[in-house]
Amino acid sequence: MKIYTKTGDKGQTSLVSGERVPKNHLRIEAYGTVDELNACLGVMKDSATYQGLHERIEDLQSLLFSIGSHLAATEKNKMPLPELHEEDILALEKDMDAMDSELEPLRNFIIPGGDLSASYAHMARTICRRAERRVIDLELAEVAVHPVILPFLNRLSDYLFTTARFLTLKQDGKETTWKSRK
Predict the structure, then answer these.
(1) pTM more than 0.85
(2) Residue 92 phi, psi dihedral angles, 5° rounding
């Protein structure tokens, strides 16, 4: 099977239901940003020397594919979609609490960085926030969005911030706090 189809050469693409939409449609922006986030998580995972989070990151990547499929489906969709659960949000909170128990309390803003994988975690956090904004755009356009997606993306960005700090700690990186100009 060839990867190229030439069906998108005029700026259109297909949704899960088979409907054709412009490649800059709000749905495409939303799930495309989730896909970008997923790719960044892969780079973050692969650049980490600390491997204690690898399996969890792969689970999150799989979950992001599920979220993307929901964002790519309209009410005309006939295909079954993967389930999304509130427990996924609670699992992020539990993971953050576990990482936080090893981190110094946060007293200042953190400058993104620390080490390479922590930098990618910060980048993933900002992409996640953009994905969240794109999903909000969908909702504002009165498009139904699965009720778990927005809270999950919101929590995931917090998780990624915590992960950046945790990777900095575990990989002997240097956390730099922001110092305001006087």
Answers:
(1) yes
(2) -65, -45
